[in-house]
Design brief:
With about 160 residues, the protein is an alpha+beta fold. The chain has 4 helices and 8 strands, in the order H-E-E-H-E-E-E-E-E-E-H-H. Strands 1, 2, 3, 4, 5, 6, 7 and 8 form an 8-stranded antiparallel beta sheet that branches.
Length: about 160
């Protein structure tokens, strides 16, 4: 696989930021789509607000495509619904990451239970890694998950990760 570790590490960092952003959210409150962009050793957090989640995501995708000209690496998190082949729809954080020289699409999918305003937020089992639309499994998936989880620890609130499970 031709994907540098940094792609999985920044994905974990952004995943932790997304979880922290909504861990105590009121019922019905969604994650404001966000990205962490690194350029020339500087890191910037971008948030994409709009009248709807769909508009915010579309705006983010447009801006991130334009940023590929000057960025070294970025990861973008949004909230959504995902339906595994064998089950009902789940709330998930979806993180998409990109780095210079990486030609593959890299996504991290983390199911969660929203807070609903009652201290009920939980990360659920099943962090998945998807490369070019294919769900990874086996040893490669384990290695990628371990790098994502390491990236979580780099976030200032990454220490809360275990308590959210």
């Amino acid at each position: 696989m031709q994907i540098p570790d940094s792609v999985f590490l920044i994905s974990g960092y952004v995943l932790a930021h997304a979880a922290y952003s909504v861990c105590d959210a009121d019922e019905g409150e969604l994650l404001i789509p966000l990205a962490v962009v690194e350029s020339d050793g500087r890191r910037e957090v971008l948030r994409f607000e709009a009248d709807s989640q769909e508009e915010a995501i579309a705006r983010a995708k447009g801006e991130l495509t334009a940023l590929k000209q000057g960025a070294d690496i970025w990861a973008f998190a949004r909230e959504g619904l995902w339906q595994p082949d064998d089950g009902p729809k789940q709330d998930v954080f979806a993180v998409t990451a990109w780095a210079k020289g990486v030609e593959m699409d890299v996504s991290i999918i983390q199911p969660f239970r929203p807070n609903r305003g009652i201290e009920d937020f939980r990360l659920l089992a099943g962090l998945d890694v998807v490369i070019d639309g294919d769900l990874l499994d086996g040893e490669i998936a384990q290695t990628c998950r371990a790098m994502v989880e390491e990236g979580v620890t780099y976030h200032p609130r990454g220490g809360q990760w275990a308590s959210w499970h």
